[in-house]
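**Folding the chain**
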Amino acid sequence: MNGAAQESMSGSLYISEYIEGQVYLLNPHVVGPDGEWEAWDFATWCPGEVRYRSFWDLMEREFGAYLS
């Protein structure tokens, strides 16, 4: 993880428990034009963070298959 990612993570909001090697965070340092905070997915099986434009995008990616 680079310095910018570490700084962003230190001020982030944890929105899940650390379960089976995965945690979700919201990053208040990256805010979209609609006011949504960037969402991050950290998992032990994926190097680094996977970034999403918003919490909605993260949840749609994770649970979209169940909603179809």
In short: The first strand starts at residue 13 and ends at 14. Helices lie at 3-10, 55-67.
